[in-house]
Amino acid sequence: ASFNNSRSLHFFLAAWPVVGIWFTALGISTMAFNLNGFNFNQSVVDSQGRVINTWADIINRANLGMEVMHERNAHNFPLDLAAIEVPSING
């Protein structure tokens, strides 16, 4: 990269690692909370098939709720959230 003056160069040299650290922290926290996309599947299930709720499930529900507020046909979505059976997305 070509810089016109040393001030631009030094700003870039200072900002580049900071942005890298921010994105690294974002990636680590994303993996720590198991946020691998929007789905209806629960994160942790015990050997009898009972759901063990985690923070990732709570965040996932909140994200789904925010996402569906922008959809047009959201009138049956609260029924999906309140359902005992979790709909399968694998077929």
Flag low-confidence runs.
Answer: none
Number of strands: 2
In total, how many domains does the architecture comprise?
Answer: 2
Give the quaternary arrangement of the chains: single chain
Total helical segments: 3
* 3D shape: elongated
Helix content: 40-55%
* Rg estimate, integer Å: 21 Å
Structural class: mainly alpha
What's the order of the H and E elements? HEEHH
Q: How far do the termini sit from each other?
A: 50 Å
User: What is the average per-residue confidence, as pLDDT, rounded to a whole number?
Assistant: 75
Summary of the model, kept short:
By secondary structure, the protein is mainly α.
Task: Report on this structure.
- Keywords: Acetylation, Chlorophyll, Chloroplast, Chromophore, Electron transport, Iron, Magnesium, Membrane, Metal-binding, Oxidoreductase, Phosphoprotein, Photosynthesis, Photosystem II, Plastid, Transmembrane, Transmembrane helix, Transport.
- It is a multi-pass membrane protein.
- Belongs to the reaction center PufL/M/PsbA/D family.
- With 91 residues, the protein is mainly alpha-helical.
- It has three helices and two strands.
- It is elongated and about 65 Å long.
- The longest helix is centred in the N-terminal third of the chain and has 27 residues, at 6-32.
- The chain has helices at residues 6-32, 55-68, 77-82, and strands at 44-45, 51-52.
- The chain has two domains: 1-32; 36-91, no CATH class.
